[in-house]
Each structure stands twice: as structure tokens, then as C-alpha cells.
Amino acid sequence: MLTSEASVATVNASLYLKKLCKHFQHKVEAQWDDHQGIAHFPMGIGTFAASADRLTMCCQAETQEALEKVQWIIDDHLIRFARKENLVPEWSGVKLGQ
Q1: pLDDT along the chain (98 residues), means of 10
Q2: What is the CATH number of the domain that holds 79?
Q3: Does residue 9 fall inside a structural domain?
Q4: What CA–CA distance (Å, rounded) separates 17 from 98?
């Protein structure tokens, strides 16, 4: 399993986590609370963690192409939802998960 991670500094981390997961739930299985969330996309998994000042996102997928697709979906939605803050996630290098 390939994984990548990104985080953005924002005092609205919990709000964005809930917005993302609630939106994703319209098309895929998603669960969340105020501090963590998960979305099961057909090509991989996105997980989210919110602290007081940071939203951390992690993607997992079987292939590089699938991983990039999950990253793109999360990026696209977060950038739109947080347009007033100009949040742009920078994903870490891909690494092999277990």
C-alpha cells in the first residue's frame, strides 16, 4: 500500500474535516467526528485529523496513479471549501505502507 501525507495550518481544521467528509459521503462511505475522519474512495482511502491549528490528511492506495487521484480529489475539494484561506496542501513523498 502506498501512502502520502499533507497538512495545512488553519484554525478551521475541524470545520474543513467535517465539510470534506460530509460532502464525500454523498458518493462514498465516510465517517467523521470533530477530530478525525475517513473516506473510502473506489481507488483508495483518505483520512483526516484536525487539531486546534492544523488539518492533516493521509492518502492510501495500491498504485501511484490511484494515490494521485485520491490526493487530487482531496486537494480539489479542500481548495474550494477553504478558498478564503488559500489553503494548498503539499503532499509528502510516496512511501510504502504496511
Answers
A1: 95 97 98 98 98 97 96 96 91 64
A2: 3.30.310.50
A3: yes
A4: 25
Q: Distance between CA atoms of 35 and 70, rounded to whole angstroms?
A: 20
Q: Using an 8 Å Cβ cutoff, are 14 and 50 in contact? A: yes
C-alpha grid cell for residue 36? 478525525
Residue 36 lies in a domain: yes
The pTM score is 0.91
Predicted confidence at residue 98, as pLDDT, reads 46
DSSP state string for 9-76? E-TTHHHHHHHHHHHHTTTSEEEE-SSEEEEEETTEEEEEEE-SSEEEEEEEESSHHHHHHHHHHHHH
Look at the chain and report how many structural domains it folds into. 1
Instruction: List residues bridging with 58 in a β-sheet.
Output: 5, 47
